[in-house]
Write a structure and sequence with these properties.
Largest interface: A-B, 17 and 13 residues
Distance between the termini of chain B: 54 Å
Strand order of the largest sheet of chain A: 1-4-5-8
Distance between the termini of chain A: 34 Å
Order of helices and strands of chain B: EEEEEHEHEHEHEEEEHEHH
Number of helices of chain A: 12
Strand content of chain B: 25-35%
Number of strands of chain B: 13
Largest sheet of chain A: 4 strands, mixed
CATH class of chain B: Alpha Beta
Order of helices and strands of chain A: HHHHHHEEEEEEEEHEEHHHHH
Oligomer: heterodimer
CATH superfamily of the largest domain in chain A: Butyryl-CoA Dehydrogenase, subunit A, domain 3
Radius of gyration of chain A: 21 Å
Largest sheet of chain B: 9 strands, mixed
Strand order of the largest sheet of chain B: 11-10-9-12-8-1-6-7-13
Structural class of chain B: alpha/beta
Number of strands of chain A: 10
Helix content of chain A: 40-55%
Shape of chain B: globular
Number of domains of chain B: 1
Structural class of chain A: alpha+beta
Radius of gyration of chain B: 22 Å
CATH topology of chain B: Rossmann fold
Number of helices of chain B: 7
Bound molecules: flavin-adenine dinucleotide
CATH topology of the largest domain in chain A: Butyryl-CoA Dehydrogenase, subunit A, domain 3
CATH class of the largest domain in chain A: Mainly Alpha
Number of domains of chain A: 3
Shape of chain A: globular
CATH superfamily of chain B: HUPs
CATH architecture of chain B: 3-Layer(aba) Sandwich
């Protein structure tokens, strides 16, 4: 078993780390306070190729593998969760969905500008009445000649006000016996008549990012922008989540690392009862836990990334990685605040932001409860993954890196 | 116009460097491209953008120095060459300059050579000038901006006192200051190329030179003396009183 990262993966990770640490870390506190993403972040990520990191060159990407995507997410979230969210929605939930399900014409027309970072992409699944229960989706798409008319509103959509494209899940067949089978997926151009959107405010965390709502009123979407077959929307959404959850798992791993680094630094400098608090065993226990969380979370996400590279179905492994890493990141952040005492309770230090952001991870892309249901389902044999009509393609460096 | 950029692999700047038995050790700290040389690579790439040609990164060192060369490739250098020979194990800067001079001549067609201002391990800061001398080239130190006009180099050199504009014909050697601008990150395209690159290794025989004699030796190496730090808490009834006492103590100790 080879645990060594390739040179390519290491250099990619290092590059993303330099960007995040040098350019975003110095301003992140201010962005979090002001409640929005610094204007340079998305254009710079596009310019550096980060927005197309693991997509094939032929579709405008940079030709790296799925593990590099995970490593990038770890580095981004070690600075701020909202940076990683960009890759979760732009690549994980949207662009990889197109790579998996779109036809060749759609990949050239829709995926290419996304992979190049010219168009920012988001993912619209959740509605005010449909979160964990995806089959409750109300927004509708009515076929009319060679186009669809879309209506409805999505809530809690990351990058709602920044994105140009949204992979939108809507109901095409209200009379389907199984409501899961009445859903379809569309790539909606958000810069057109009938689209309104806005950011949500008053969030606990993820304040340096954009989370909002998007409403469609009689928006026309050409037939050529339906992704997959009619009725395949639920399967497509779940497949997208297999990739989004992977980025969340890798990101949460980076958040644990940030908690660990902040905690060891602070514990070695803060003195109480005549010595550094790092000498107290109850403080050491918290640090030991963070080390355990970090290593376990990292191994789980790297396994999922490896399975993706191999082209092996990984819904179970990715769900496990996401559940573990996000729960662990929330605990790590809570303990990091504790180690910092009152100083951790103020935004003078980063750890209170880590804690507020970490809570998001255990809610989006499947709450921890949903992942527990899934894991029990697999263990009990109640849940079996049926093969998909389109599987995520395995990483093939020749195909990915061929310049056409 | 072909450009050479001479780079060195050094311990990471965060490494804890200690001297033991007249040997320097940095534990298992990672080895990186010398930070000053990142500016030299940046300058070489800027010059290439202005004047065309190829940029060759050259390093003298052990097998591990290929890592530093890969960073230079990932940043955008056209090719890289490692010069490695057991006879260079204890080479000083003028010996390295002899080797770099031979390497630059062997690459062929090189009209500009870029250097970092110094290496963060030996901190000599003379290799660029020594190499230029051996090549018989002009040398411009601490360059902060480069332009290429009518076949000549026009550079800015920044000092505390101001900025000097200097012009010189080619061939020339440059040492580069931080003011050239932040070194670019490796691009993914560069990373893919670097990961795949087979970096050729030249030994002294390939360069057609004998091992140059080193004249500088390090007979003794020691750690800086440990600084004694005394902490004194200044107390008082009010902030005003504490501040007054503090001022008194500062004046007494002649800190200001
Ligand atoms: C910061 C942020 C960003 C987001 N970004 C996006 C995005 O880009 N795109 C998108 O589509 N959505 C996004 N979401 C929405 C997110 O995916 C949903 O919030 C999530 O799926 C949970 O849905 P809900 O909020 O409606 O909670 P509900 O589904 O109403 O759940 C409420 C509670 O009930 C529990 N629960 C529900 N069902 C069960 C069950 N069967 N058994 C046990 N417990 C259960 C849940 O675990 C939870 O604790 C985002 C959310 C946040 C907070």
């Amino acid at each position: 078993m080879d645990f060594k990262l390739t040179e390519e993966q290491q250099m990619a990770q290092q590059m993303v780390r330099e960007f995040a640490q040098r350019e975003v870390a110095p301003v992140i506190k201010e962005s979090d306070r002001q409640g929005g993403m610094a204007a340079f972040v998305l254009p710079r990520m596009a310019e550096l190729g980060i927005l197309g990191i693991c997509l094939p060159l032929r579709y405008g990407g940079q030709g790296m593998d799925y593990i590099s995507l995970g490593l990038a997410c770890e580095e981004l979230e070690a600075v701020d969760s909202t940076l990683r969210v960009v890759l979760s929605v732009h690549i994980g939930l949207n662009s990889l969905g197109l790579l998996q399900w779109a036809n060749e014409e759609q990949k050239q027309r829709l995926l290419k500008p996304q992979a190049r970072g010219e168009k920012i992409a988001c993912f619209g699944l959740t509605e005010s009445g449909a979160g964990s229960d995806v089959a409750a989706i109300q927004s509708s798409a009515r076929c009319q000649g060679d186009e669809y008319i879309l209506n409805g509103e999505k809530m809690w959509i990351s990058l709602a006000t920044k994105a140009h494209h949204c992979l939108w899940i809507a109901r095409t067949d209200p009379s389907a016996a199984d409501p899961h089978e009445g859903l379809s997926a569309f790539l909606v151009d958000l810069e057109q008549k009938g689209v309104t959107r806005g950011d949500l405010h008053g969030k606990l965390g993820m304040r340096a990012g954009s989370t909002g709502w998007i409403a469609l009123q009689d928006v026309t979407v050409p037939l050529q922008n339906r992704i997959g077959e009619e009725g395949e929307g639920f399967k497509i959404a779940m497949a997208c989540l297999d990739n989004g959850r992977y980025t969340v798992a890798a990101g949460a791993t980076g958040l644990i690392r940030a908690c660990l680094e902040a905690s060891t630094t602070y514990a070695k400098s803060r003195r109480a009862f005549g010595r550094e608090i790092s000498w107290f065993q109850l403080v050491q226990q918290k640090i030991a836990n963070m080390v355990q969380f970090y290593d376990a979370a990292r191994l789980l996400y790297l396994r999922a990334g490896w399975l993706k590279n191999q082209g092996v179905r990984n819904t179970r492994e990715t769900s496990l990685a996401k559940w573990f890493a996000t729960d662990a990141s929330f605990q790590a952040a809570a303990e990091a605040v504790q180690i910092h005492g009152a100083y951790g309770y103020s935004d003078e230090y980063d750890v209170e932001r880590y804690l507020r952001n970490a809570k998001g991870g255990v809610i989006y892309e499947g709450t921890s409860e949903i992942h527990q249901l899934m894991q029990a389902g697999y263990a009990l044999g109640y849940r079996v993954d049926a093969p998909l009509r389109c599987e995520l393609p395995p990483y093939d460096s020749e195909f990915w890196q061929a310049e056409i | 116009m072909n450009i050479a950029v001479c780079v060195k692999q050094v311990p990471d700047s965060a490494a804890k460097v200690v001297a033991e038995d007249d040997r320097v050790s940095w534990g298992d700290a990672p080895l990186v491209l010398n930070p000053w040389d990142e500016y030299a690579v940046e300058a070489a790439l800027q010059l290439q953008e202005a004047a065309g040609g190829e940029v060759t990164a050259v390093s003298v060192g052990g097998e591990s120095a290929k890592e530093a060369l890969k960073t230079a490739l990932a940043m955008g250098c056209t090719q890289a060459i490692l010069v490695s020979d057991p006879a260079l194990a204890a080479a000083d800067s003028q010996a390295i300059a002899h080797v770099l001079c031979a390497a630059i001549q062997k690459i062929g067609g090189v009209e500009a050579a870029c250097f970092g201002r110094q290496a963060i391990d030996g901190d000599m800061g003379v290799t660029g000038a020594q190499t230029a001398h051996l090549l018989g080239w002009l040398m411009l130190g601490l360059v902060s901006k480069i332009e290429f006009k009518d076949g000549k180099l026009q550079v800015e050199r920044s000092f505390e006192e101001g900025i000097q504009i200097a012009e010189c014909p080619l061939p020339a050697a440059l040492s580069v200051s931080k003011d050239i601008g932040e070194p670019r990150y490796p691009s993914f395209m560069g990373i893919r190329k670097a990961a795949r690159a087979e970096i050729p290794t030249w030994d002294l025989a390939a360069l057609g030179i004998e091992a140059p004699a080193s004249v500088v030796r390090w007979p003794r190496i020691s750690n800086p003396p440990v600084r004694e730090i005394k902490t004194e808490m200044i107390e008082g009834g009010s902030p005003q009183e504490i501040a007054e006492k503090l001022v008194e103590r500062i004046l007494e100790e002649k800190v200001l």
